[in-house]
C-alpha cells in the first residue's frame, strides 16, 4: 500500500495452460481485462468475442492481436474458432489485415449467418455443437 510505483497489470497470472472447449472473452473483449498472457494460459477450441461499442474500444484490436501472439506460443497448432457476437468495424479490419496470420495459426473466424427472433427483437446468432 505504501509503494507508489505502479506495476504492469496482467489479466491472468503466469502459470501452466488451461485447456477448455469454449471461452467467453471477458468484459466485452476489453484490453483492460485481456492480454497475451490470457491467451497463452487459457487455451480453447472456441472463443466468443462480444462487444459492439467503438467508443469503449470493445472489442479491442489489442485483444484480437493478443490472441494471435498468444496462440503463436502454443506447443500445438490446434484449430481455434473465433465467434464474434457482433459485426464491428474493428473485427472486420482485424480479420482482413491479419487473415494470412490467422490461417498460419489455424484460427478460423465464424461469421454469423442465422437470426434469432424473440418477441419484437431479432439478432444474429451462431449454433455451436461441442
TrEMBL record:
Designated name of the protein: MAP1B protein
GO molecular function terms noted in the UniProt entry: actin binding; microtubule binding
GO cellular component, one term: microtubule associated complex
InterPro entries linked to this entry: MAP1 (IPR026074)
Species: Sterrhoptilus dennistouni
Any single biological process term in GO: regulation of microtubule depolymerization
